[in-house]
Amino acid sequence: MKFVPYFDLGGTPNIIVDSVPTAATILTLSHWPESGTPVALQDDLSAQIVFHYLDGDPQLEAVPAVSNNHFDKDGLAGIFALLFPEISQRYRDLVVDVASAGDFGVYRLHDAARIAFAVSSYESSLRSPLAPLMNVEPSHRRVALLYQELLPRFAEWMRAPDSIRQLWIDEDAYLRETEVRIRRGDIRVAEQPDLDLAIVTVPDGRRVPPPPGLPEYADALCHPMAIHNATRMFRVLYCCGHRYEMHYRYETWVHYVSRLHPPRVDLAPLALELSALEGPGVEWTFDGVSEITPRLYLGNAEESRIPLESFKARLLSALRRG
C-alpha cells in the first residue's frame, strides 16, 4: 500500500482516511459525518479509527492505495498509522494525541502539541519550508505535496521532537503564555454544562498577543488550544472588553462518539437581533450551522456597543430556545 493523491486515484482500489469515499473505495476510516465507516470501528478521531482497524486482522496488502481529499493532522496521523503500522503502534498514544491536538485543539502530551505546531508550520504559506511550492501549486496539489513531504518525516518527529524545535518554538511559547494566564486568573474560563458552553473572559480586556511569526493568530484573543484543554464544553464564548465571539468547536461537526453533545443552534436570528441593537453600520454575522467551525461575531467593527451582560443574556436565551 502507498499514499496516492485523492485526485489521482481514478479507479484504483483504495482505503480513505479522514475523508469521503470514491467510487473505488474498499474501506473508509473516517470520523466525518455519513462517511460509511463501519460502526464497530467508529471513534472520535480518524486516527483512532485506523488503530481500531489495525487491531483486527487488516488485509493491507490487498489494497494498493490510501488517500484523503484534504490535508490535516488527523489525516496525516491516520495515514501514517496505516502505512507504517509497526512504528505507529510503538508511538500510538503520541500519534493519536497529535491528531487530537490538530483537530480538536486538545492534547495530553506536550510533544503532541509541538509536533502539531510543526505540521502547521509546513501548512502555512508564509512559514512553510515548502513556501515557494505552496504558493504556486493548485490546492489539490498542495495537499498531495504535504502528505508526500511529511509522511516520511513523521516517524523521526515522533522519536525526536526537539530536532524540529525551530518549527514549533514560536507557537509553543504562545500556548504556554496563554496557559500561564489561565492559571493566574488573567483569563477566566467558566462553564455552563446545561448549555455545553464555556465563557472565556479576559477581565482587564487585554488579549494575549501572538508572536510576530504567527500571522494566522493576529486576531485571536489567545491560543485556542489552551482554552480547549481547559474545558470540555463544545460551545465557547470569548469576551475581551467589548469584543465578543461565540464558536462551535470542531467536535460538533464530526461524528463524535465518546460523549453526547447538544446539536448546533442556528444563531442567524440572534445575529439579526444584535445588529439591530448595535445601530446603523454595525453588523453581526453567523457563519451557519453547516460550516465546520462556525462563529457568531461582529463583522465590521472592533467592539460592540452592547453591554456584556446584555449580550450574554441574549446568547444564553437563544441557546436555550434552540
Q: Helix and strand layout, with pairings?
A:
Layout: E1 2-3, E2 14-17, E3 25-29, H1 46-55, E4 65-67, H2 73-83, H3 85-90, H4 92-104, H5 110-123, H6 131-136, H7 139-159, H8 165-184, E5 188-192, E6 197-202, H9 224-230, E7 235-240, E8 243-248, H10 268-278, E9 284-286, E10 295-298, H11 308-321
Parallel strand pairs: 1-4, 2-3, 2-4, 6-7
Antiparallel strand pairs: 5-6, 7-8, 8-10, 9-10
Question: Can you walk through the features of this model?
Answer:
With 322 residues, the protein is α/β, with parallel strands linked by helices. The chain folds into 2 domains: 2-159, no CATH class; 185-321, no CATH class. The chain contains 11 helices and 10 strands. A 6-stranded mixed beta sheet has the order 5-6-7-8-10-9. It has a 4-stranded parallel beta sheet with strand order 1-4-2-3. The protein is globular and about 60 Å long. The mean pLDDT is 95.
Mean pLDDT score, rounded?
95
Query: Which stretches of 5+ consecutive residues score pLDDT under 50?
Result: none
What structural category characterises the helix and strand content? alpha/beta
Which percent range describes the beta-strand content? 5-15%
Please tell me how large the radius of gyration is.
21 Å
Q: What is the total number of structural domains?
A: 2
